[in-house]
Amino acid sequence: MEAVINYCLNKFCPYIVIGTLLFMNLSYSSWEPYVILGMIMWIEKFHFKTGYSVAYCESRGITPHED
Hints:
single chain, 2 helices
């Protein structure tokens, strides 16, 4: 149960904190907070795939050639 709580806090607390700070400082009527939150979600969606591909290549010995 502790692992589930830790996962949820690590997964969702950054969004809550960032969203709260953005909307407190910029307001609900401005467009910037929505763009920033969207970019954060986009980054989070693709960062795992990048890390996975690096680990996959390293485990298989696939490295770029240096000239």
